[in-house]
Specification:
With 383 residues, the protein is of the alpha/beta class. The protein has 11 helices and 13 strands. The strands form 4 sheets. Strands 3-2-1-4-5 form a 5-stranded mixed β-sheet. Strands 8-13-9-12 form a 4-stranded mixed β-sheet, covered by helices on one side. A hairpin with a 7-residue loop joins strand 1 and strand 2. The longest helix has 25 residues. The N and C termini lie far apart (46 Å). 44% of the residues are buried. The N terminus is likely disordered.
Length: 383
């Protein structure tokens, strides 16, 4: 791989593949001009590409977990992001050592390059400052969007309007100067043409890297536009502070409903799965489900599919094992924030509007030494 050194590089964005796949790398100079933009394929030397950017780099913003201190469940950062940005469709996936390992891929890369990954690090005061970022809340907050941009899932027809919106927003941002980049123009030509979904996949990582690079620049030059969610022990994410504008979920017209991808949210809920019975265990389980889905709302009036894969604690298996249908009922009842709420029997219980559930899948198994809980997926059914 040919690697060019550009000593003018100051701010770098990295959309890092978590395991295998493509990695996008974008580098800006001190005035926000896009100096280089590239896609690294599986097997490419990402570390070498980053070393090749020279010794002038001040801030690197990485879209991948840097610090993960929790063994299971979600980091506090993800819970905070969900509470702040969930209504805008910009919640974060759960991250823990069970899925990432003791040291994450981004953490190993930062160690190898001598970057300072603490959220308290500041540019110009020592090693390169490396922060974890997440494009969805960054875009919603920086551009005061009513909802996340839909450019990542679905067919090309569903993704293309979001891609074109994103290209336009980035080109208009006053801190960025993208017009002089040949590669940016190539990506723009793809997006403004008639691309297939595969072509959009091939440019997505580089566009995300530009978003990350913008956050890196703002971390150095406009830190008041950003906030730290979480901490340096369990892990953190840098994103804009809590928004002052309202969230508005876009409504699909009858002409676009068939082409768009339905809303889909997936959460791992850690705890003791419990069936209906009115016990403290049931209340604790429902509270855990509600906490995991804070800020998640399915489109009003939509039909949904729910999948619940339960892992029972070892002492729940056997003679007193809860029935699967009871586990499902309790879990869905706790999705009142996601599906809307209705009053239960005699007006005493808060239940989800489960009439909207038109498709259901469920399973249960013993945890067998693994964390107990349930993987819950709620997905809008698009007709």
């Amino acid at each position: 791989m040919n690697m060019e050194v550009d000593v003018r590089a100051r701010f770098v964005g990295v959309d890092l593949a978590w395991s295998t796949g493509r990695t996008g790398v974008a580098a800006l100079d001190g005035d926000g001009a896009l100096l280089s933009l590239r896609r690294c394929e599986p097997g490419d030397d990402v570390e070498g590409v980053l070393r090749g950017l020279g010794a002038g780099v001040e801030v690197v913003a990485v879209d991948a977990p840097l610090i993960v201190g929790n063994d299971t469940g979600q980091r506090g950062a993800e819970r905070e992001i969900g509470r702040t940005w969930g209504a805008f469709g910009a919640s974060a996936h759960a991250t823990n050592r069970g899925t990432q390992g003791e040291v994450t891929r981004a953490g190993r890369l930062a160690d190898a390059l001598g970057w300072d990954v603490r959220p308290t690090s500041r540019p110009g005061r020592g090693p390169v400052c490396c922060i974890e970022v997440y494009p969805h809340p960054a875009l919603v907050g920086l551009f005061e969007l009513p909802y996340r941009i839909a450019y990542k899932k679905g067919s090309a027809a569903a993704r293309l309007p979001g891609f074109r919106q994103l290209i336009g927003l980035l080109e208009e941002h006053p801190a960025l100067r993208l017009g002089g980049s040949v590669r940016w123009q190539e990506i723009r030509d793809v997006v403004m043409g008639e691309p297939g979904s595969g072509e959009l996949d091939r440019v997505e990582d580089e566009v995300d890297a530009v978003v990350c690079a913008l956050v890196a620049l703002l971390w150095a030059q406009r830190p008041e536009l950003l906030a730290v969610y979480g901490d340096g022990d369990e892990g953190y994410v840098v994103a804009p502070p809590a928004p002052r504008h309202a969230a508005v979920r876009p409504l699909a017209s009858s002409q676009t409903a068939a082409a768009r991808a339905g809303a889909r949210e997936q959460r791992w809920v850690e705890g003791r799965p419990t069936g209906y019975g009115g016990s403290a265990n049931e209340r604790a389980w429902k509270a855990a489900v509600r906490e995991a889905f804070v800020g998640v709302v399915m489109p009003e009036g939509s039909r949904v599919a729910v999948t619940i894969d339960v892992r029972l604690q070892d002492d729940q298996v056997g003679r007193l094992e809860p029935d699967l249908d009871n586990l499902v009922k309790t879990t869905i009842d706790a999705l009142d924030g996601v599906l809307g709420a209705r009053t239960g029997t005699a007006g005493q219980r808060l239940e989800a509007d489960d009439v909207r559930v038109a498709r259901l899948g469920a399973s249960k198994e013993a945890a067998a030494g693994r964390p107990a809980g349930a993987l819950v997926v709620v997905e809008e059914i698009v007709v």
